[in-house]
Fold this protein.
Amino acid sequence: MSSVAPEEMARPGSAEVASLEEELVRRAQRGDREALRQLLGQHADALYGRVILPRLGDPATAEDLLKATMVTAIEKLSTFRWQGRSIYFWLRRIAVNKVIDHHRRSQRAQRLARSLAQEPEPDPDGPGRTGPEAELIAREERRLNAERVKAALAKLHPRYQRAIELRLLKELPREECARQLEVTLGTFDVVLFRAVSAFRRSFGAP
Amino acid sequence: MSDDSKGRVPGEEEEAAAPAELEAARAFGARVDRALAGERVSLDEGLAAALMVHASGHEQTLPVDRRAALIDEALVDVTARSSQAPARRRALRWAPALALAASFLLLLGSLVTLVAPGRRATTAPARPLPSAMQSRSSDPIMGRPFRDRAGASRRLDLVYADRLSGYRRVRFGERSRR
């Protein structure tokens, strides 16, 4: 069996890709480490960038949780049953549970842990039903991430919302943010500082 | 941050910043700059929240070598765990069977005890103990109770009940009247 590059596996809309992934899963379940490596490599970025980090913020901890996710996945791979959709959804569930467990361990992030536990998952009958349609799954994940933040931002003062949008979502330099808010740089810093504190309270983050 | 000349109470977002807050906010802004530029910055809860918002709008990817290293580490961890604990896994594998066997034996023992009561009847009757090992009657020492005092304990009970009833009447009757 020839190996398949992750980027090739992630090409959207290909039934061939689905059958290749199914074959990879079967080989990995039989103990083929190279297949396992390819399978994890194919989904590692999505799990890190779309699932773990947006629920955590801390890149170092996100890497730890990604590794913990992969360890659990390897240990439980024999229990996975191919049901015509990408293994991504199974891996995603493990990753989300790791994040929730992490927040539960922190006394101050209990509310965030509870709200993450109640979050909807990407529709299992939607993208990925017939294969790892990476682009569609990614779009759905981005939508979920944006909605989570939008709901928390909606509870903030409009000025705080604007400060967060300009600096953290649009990534404008602080000077430009200050110019757009018509304040000095020092004042913008204070507004952003307070905005993030208010966001933490609204979001239930620690 | 500016005086409100319209007479209403300013909200938190409008309050002037104390020098300490100004300093903290400036440092926070600078750390956000460095974190968004991709530097590894020591995180506090505020910065983690800021990066959470940022990561929700900007998908981050791992460098290819870091991704490969994490996969390798995960594989090594699993291998180490599986080689470190084979005995424990074996014990865990047999634990349900052992528990089941113990429960079965207990159940069997209980059934035998319940279903075969005759076994007890068939055992030989206990032989009487020698008189030296038996309790002696106190009658030879103290004599039998006198006939005219035979009902003394019953009279004592009646007196005690009467006193207790009187005490309750005085004690609780008074309280209920208050």
User: Anything to note?
Assistant: The first helix of chain A runs from residue 6 to 9. Chain A touches chain B through 59 residues (CB under 8 Å). Chain A is about 70% helix and 0% strand. The two ends of chain A are 48 Å apart (CA to CA).
